[in-house]
Design a protein that fits this description.
The protein is an alpha+beta fold. It folds into two domains: 2-85, Arc Repressor Mutant, subunit A (Orthogonal Bundle); 88-140. Helices cover 35% and strands 19% of the residues. It contains four helices and six strands. Strands 1-3-2 form a three-stranded antiparallel β-sheet. A three-stranded mixed β-sheet has the order 5-4-6, with no helix packed on it. A hairpin with a 5-residue loop joins strand 4 (96-99) and strand 5 (105-107). The longest helix has 15 residues, at 2-16. The termini are far apart.
């Protein structure tokens, strides 16, 4: 799997017109393996001995974001949480659920929510992100 993942990441970077760098590959691998949004802090902790500083992580995430490979799934406690953009469209992201007790976040990719129509005159909806909170099955 690791070899296939490496090839897939190489192809993603090439298609996006980005150089293959150790930091980009490392962060993309983390996001693939996590399967859910990660904060900069969580990425830094997982990087461990690779000694990625916060500025490097931020710049790497921004380059991946600007290339459309990752997106900001939601904000929690003023921290953006990033995930791979392959399960979302430019207009709509799948919903996320965060447990208010244990803090775990789950991607609700099987939950389809309709794109809302602007209900107030003059408002134009360009993108939908839904972040639900409550208790997960383990905590309820």
């Amino acid at each position: 799997m690791s070899e296939n993942l490496d090839e897939h990441i190489d192809e993603m970077l090439k298609t996006a017109g980005l150089y293959h760098t150790e930091n980009r590959v490392l962060i993309l691998k983390m996001l693939f393996k996590a399967g859910k949004p990660l904060s900069q802090e969580k990425i830094a902790r997982q990087a461990g001995t690779n000694n990625l500083d916060k500025v490097t992580i931020y710049r790497t995430l921004e380059s991946l974001f600007n290339a459309g490979l990752v997106h900001k799934a939601f904000l929690n406690k003023r921290a953006s949480h990033y995930e791979l953009a392959h399960r979302c469209t430019k207009k709509q992201c799948h919903p996320h659920f965060t447990c208010t007790k244990c803090g775990s976040t789950h991607c609700l990719v099987d939950l389809a929510l309709p794109m809302p129509v602007s209900y107030h005159k003059g408002f134009i909806i360009n993108h939908q992100q839904v972040h639900l909170e409550g208790l997960c099955p383990a905590c309820s």
